[in-house]
Write a structure and sequence with these properties.
The complex is a heterodimer of chains A (about 350) and B (about 650). With about 350 residues, chain A is an alpha+beta fold. Chain A is built from 6 helices and 22 strands. Chain A has 2 domains: about 230 residues, Thrombin, subunit H (Beta Barrel); about 80 residues, Roll (Pdz3 Domain), CATH 2.30.42.10. In chain A, the strands form 6 sheets. Chain A has a 6-stranded antiparallel barrel with strand order 3-4-5-8-7-6. In chain A, strands 9-10-11-16-13-12 form a 6-stranded antiparallel β-barrel. The longest helix of chain A has 13 residues. Chain B folds into 5 domains: about 50 residues, no CATH class; about 200 residues, Thrombin, subunit H, CATH 2.40.10.120; about 80 residues, Pdz3 Domain (Roll); about 35 residues, no CATH class; about 190 residues, outer membrane lipoprotein receptor (LolB), chain A. Chain B is globular and about 95 Å long. Classes of the chains: A alpha+beta (about 350), B alpha+beta (about 650). At the A-B interface, helix 1, strand 1, strand 2, helix 2 and strand 10 of A face strand 1, helix 1, helix 2, helix 3 and helix 5 of B. Strand 14 of chain A pairs antiparallel with strand 1 of chain B.
Chain lengths: ~350, ~650
């Protein structure tokens, strides 16, 4: 594993910190009008002259109301069927990770008070793997995403998530305390074809990225959202797991992108290409279309075909075509039919636990 | 840039140092060296690390940006003053923290096998050496272990009671009568976000017997972690991100006042190997203390059920979906379809909450319950049935707890055959005499029956400080009145009979036989039976009255305290006898006919303390929760049995 944090000074301080084992609080005071004058975790003289430690329970209560537990597809070994998410804004939008958990027709979301909602996927952002869900009639006020939130290395943070599915109903999500160790770029190798860069992330000193934690909230000591907990990730050669979160400005940009409509599921009628791509010409067959929403599994890939040359394999599950979400075989064939036979396109497939991007170039 | 592979499976674990070193380039190694040297050179910095930590915590937020003024602030502290002076409040808080951790360390116990091997953790909660730990820590060691304290000494230790369901055990250390004790906190006040710290012996690091402290926050409360089968269930537990690693099991979790709030026992691991991933669970100290006296009884203790099951109905209410007609809950009026609102002191809104809260109670306890039916909201108490059959508990103990091995003894005939070498060998492996061999006794249903004897002796000794033993040759004569009906109630308890005179009616009862129909028919003679039991209890003691088993401490309806409880089988009845933990006097006797009907509850609400002997003055007979008879005794005396027969 190679760590190349941007500035050498930053590295130096990371080490310095590691050597001291310092838990550190943010020095910057909040702009929030109702923020307490003393940050939780700081010490204040009590009324009896004795020193008391400010606890974080009120903060936890406030944040919990914005959290959701998400239950969807999965359940097989190594593939959890649950993850975390949180409300944003006031319109019933939920931000979470874009993962295989969402590959289900009926996505179940459980709010802090145990209310259960069916959510639909409004949009998603494959570049940093976030998804935006929509729930009607929730009437829960979520986090405001402030891209200008100042986040610094050494800052005290809390990670709030439903890791290990500890909560299922009205139970609270789990809270962990930590420190931002470094701000760095992170590249995850996904399968054999492509390294996927998540860009800048916060590296945390605490084990936040556990099963089901993905999509959880990273908050500062005043309860403001400063990041989204990422997926589990581990170095193949050392076996070390990295704990990271997507920074607020990256999340903000992604949410804006998703809200503006990129990667929406196609709802409008598509133009049919004159000479479209066809499955048999690509050299692959899909499993038979027997359900209202048959998942797009590749049944067979003909040897020597374009599909094989592009790197597609039997049992691959096609999730995206040119960043358009594929939720059924019908949907896939319709989209494919809108592409000209001479055009290249990109697929995102799931192979086992890996997500792989595949370029198909005729 | 950091490169990671996504979601790969296990890679063989490598030792941690080389892995860490591989992160570092030469320059970085130099930096570490410089930092280390600074520590050694500067006396102010070589203070405990936590002090240095707080200094900087308050003054700077480190930054990745070298131009950030906070970086310069470190330099300023370093260059201009050798003794940076942080705010006094910070230092005071730090002193308080160090003090709390120091206090907590005294009572933290390292649990080892009797050969000093292996290890887990525990916490001492009584000056005479009772230790709380996990069942899964004590069980591999059998009944004997050694416990280390941070005074650097190892103490011989023996298991008292075990709770395989709740993963608790109580051990007893020997060697001092002033063991350091952890202050007991209130786990009901613990909330997610509170600071906490764990002490213990992770990875058996405490070779010098100094516990390791790990610091974190409470990540969640009222957590539920599923049992394997029906054992090792964590109900209503505390979740923390303070590092809980193998070896921390059984050790204490403290709040920042250094008060004990939980017993660490379990972690979520999954695919990352058996090391901390920031998710540990502690049994709440409330649950542990509910079971503490039950565990001191040396029994294999059991948890409780309600006697009914619940489901969430279409309106989201928690309603009774099934109920045993023989259960106390049914007799108290709970029926199919009733909505459960509260169990113990916990409001119930989901089936999960109900399942969670029931797990903290021992069986045989009576706890308050609030429910709603067509008549409205009703409050009652129900007696909790046992979760397991006694045979199920015995099975798990046989299966998991290696029983003590006897030292191999040469057979007499082998000796006589005269192979000298063999005899010598056998003598060598013969173990030295265990100093605690008299502190262990095998009996069915017990992990160590010795402790049950000990508790029974404690109760009897306590009673004798309250009231001297009665002369065995005497009968007891009492005079009194039934308060509501203004009738006289007098009687005599003697070897030959129990005689009760209520108004003009006289009832004579065999001293041991024929009690059951009277209990079933809710007769006032039950008071006479209770006086008879009180009489014998004070004369010959529970052990000679029949089979007596100390259960622990149970609540009595209408009081806050817990009472020492002995299950007594005398003649044909089973009784539960509740005595005061302060003076050993009997407070309540419950007489059970069978499990289909309510027991007769005879309360001794007040004593004639000026009388000789000290005797109950206000006696209340109750069935279920309904008062049957209230009697005031005015005169109780020990008399010659011959005089009684003459009357």
């Amino acid at each position: 594993m190679r760590i190349l944090i941007r500035s050498r000074t930053a590295r130096l301080f990371m080490l310095f910190w590691a050597a001291l084992c310092i838990p550190s609080t943010a020095g910057k005071s909040s702009e929030t009008p109702d923020a307490p004058s003393v940050a939780p975790g700081q010490t204040v003289p009590g009324s009896d002259g004795q020193t008391t430690v400010v606890q974080h329970d009120d903060l936890v209560d406030r944040v919990q109301q914005k959290m959701v537990k998400i239950f969807g597809a999965g359940g097989a070994r190594g593939l959890e069927s649950y993850q975390s998410g949180f409300w944003i804004g006031k319109e019933g939008l939920i931000l979470t990770s874009w993962s295989t958990v969402l590959d289900v027709s009926k996505l179940r979301v459980v709010a802090h008070d145990g209310r259960k909602f069916d959510a639909e996927i409004l949009s998603f952002d494959p570049s940093i793997e976030l998804a935006l869900l929509k729930v009607s009639d929730a009437q829960i006020e979520g986090f405001e995403i402030d891209p200008k939130s100042a986040v610094r290395v050494g800052q005290r943070v809390f990670a709030v998530s439903n890791l290990f599915k500890i909560a299922t109903g009205d139970e609270y999500c789990s809270v962990q305390k930590g420190v931002i160790m470094a701000i760095s770029s992170l590249t995850q190798k996904r399968g054999t074809t492509k390294n996927m860069s998540l860009g800048k992330v916060y590296i945390l000193d605490v084990m936040t990225n556990n099963p089901g934690a993905t999509g959880g909230a990273l908050i500062d000591i005043r309860g403001g959202l400063i990041g989204v907990i990422g997926k589990e990730s581990r170095d193949a050669s050392t076996g070390i797991w990295v704990n990271y979160a997507l920074p607020i400005e990256v999340v903000h940009a992604s949410v804006e992108r998703m809200k503006s409509g990129a990667a929406f599921s196609p709802t409008t009628e598509l133009a049919v290409a004159e000479k479209p791509h066809k499955l048999n010409e690509l050299g692959m067959t899909l499993i038979p279309d027997v359900l209202p929403k048959t998942p797009v599994f590749i049944d067979e890939v003909r040897s020597g075909s374009l599909a094989e040359l592009s790197g597609l394999k039997a049992n691959d599950l096609i999730l995206l075509l040119n960043d358009q979400r594929i939720d059924s075989r019908k949907n896939f064939e319709r989209l494919l039919g809108s592409l000209n036979r001479a055009d290249s396109f990109e697929l995102l497939v799931q192979r086992g636990q890996e997500l792989i991007r595949i370029q198909v170039r005729p | 840039m950091i490169s990671f592979d996504h979601d790969k499976h296990h890679v063989p674990t490598k030792s941690s140092w080389p892995t860490v070193l591989r992160f570092l380039s030469t320059i970085e190694m130099l930096c570490v060296l410089i930092v280390t040297m600074l520590f050694m050179a500067n006396p102010a910095w070589s203070q405990p690390q936590s002090e240095a930590a707080v200094v900087i915590e308050q003054n700077v937020a480190p930054s990745a940006d070298p131009s950030d003024e906070s970086v310069n602030r470190i330099a300023a502290i370093d260059a201009s003053t050798s003794q940076p002076i942080p705010p006094e409040t910070v230092l005071a808080a730090q002193r308080a923290r160090i003090e709390a951790m120091k206090r907590a360390s005294y009572a933290t116990v390292a649990v080892h096998s009797k050969d000093g091997e292996g290890g887990g953790s525990g916490v001492c909660i009584s000056a005479d050496g009772y230790v709380l730990t996990n069942f899964h820590v004590s069980s591999p060691f059998g009944h004997r272990m050694k416990c280390g304290l941070n005074d650097g000494k190892m103490y011989d230790c023996v298991v008292a009671g075990i709770d395989p369901t709740g993963d608790l055990a109580v051990l007893k250390m020997y060697g001092r009568d002033d063991f350091p004790v952890a202050a007991i906190g209130d786990s009901d006040l613990v909330r997610a976000g509170h600071w906490c710290f764990a002490a213990g012996n992770p990875f058996v690091l405490a070779t010098n017997l100094q516990p390791t402290i790990t610091y974190g926050i409470v990540s969640g409360v009222r957590r539920y972690q599923y049992p394997s089968g029906t054992f090792l269930e964590y109900s209503d537990c505390i979740q923390t991100d303070a590092a809980i690693n193998p070896g921390n099991s059984g050790g204490p979790l403290f709040n920042m006042n250094g008060e004990l709030i939980g017993i660490n026992g379990r972690c979520s691991f999954e695919k990352r190997g058996r090391v901390n991933v920031g998710v540990g669970y502690a049994i709440s100290i409330k649950q542990a203390m509910n079971f503490y006296w039950q565990l001191r009884s040396g029994r294999v203790v059991d948890h409780a059920t309600l006697g009914f099951t619940v489901a969430t109905d279409s309106k989201g209410k928690v309603t009774v979906s099934n109920i045993l007609e023989s259960s106390d809950a049914f007799r108290r009026g709970i029926r199919y379809g009733d909505e459960i609102l509260k169990v113990g002191d916990r409001d119930i809104a989901t089936t999960n909450q109900l399942k969670n809260i029931v797990g903290i109670y021992p069986d045989n306890w009576r706890i308050p319950i609030r429910y709603r039916n067509a008549d409205g909201v009703l409050d009652t108490y129900i007696r909790l049935p046992s979760l397991h059959l006694s045979s199920e508990l015995e099975e798990i103990v046989q299966g998991e707890n290696p029983r003590p091995r006897r030292a191999p003894m040469p057979k007499p005939n082998e000796k006589s055959e005269g192979k000298d070498a063999e005899v010598e060998e056998i003598q060598e492996v013969k173990e030295t005499v265990d100093p605690l061999s008299d502190k262990f006794e095998i009996k069915r249903g017990f992990s160590n029956y010795y402790f049950n004897r000990l508790e029974k002796k404690r109760i009897v000794d306590l009673l004798h400080t309250f009231s001297a033993p009665f002369d065995g040759s005497k009968a007891v004569h009492w005079d009194g009145t039934v308060l509501a009906e203004n009738q006289s109630y007098s009687g005599v308890s003697s070897e030959s009979s129990i005689l009760c005179r209520i108004g003009n009616d006289t009832e004579t009862l065999h001293p041991t036989q024929g009690w059951l129909p009277q209990i079933r028919s809710k007769s006032n003679v039950c008071i006479g039976m209770a006086i008879r039991i009180w009489h014998l209890w004070n004369t010959i003691g529970p052990d000679k009255m029949g089979e007596a088993v100390y259960l622990g401490r149970n609540p009595i309806v209408g009081t806050e305290e817990l009472f020492d409880t002995i299950k007594l089988t005398t003649g044909e009845v089973n009784c539960l006898v509740y005595t005061s933990p302060l003076n050993g006097s009997i407070r309540l006797i419950e007489l059970f006919a069978d499990n289909q009907v309510d027991p007769a509850e005879v309360y001794f609400d007040a004593y004639l303390t000026e009388n000789t002997p000290k005797a109950p003055s206000v006696i209340r007979l109750q069935f279920g929760l309904e008062l049957q008879t209230l009697v005031r005794l005015t005169d109780v005396k020990l008399v010659d049995p011959s005089g009684v027969t003459a009357q």
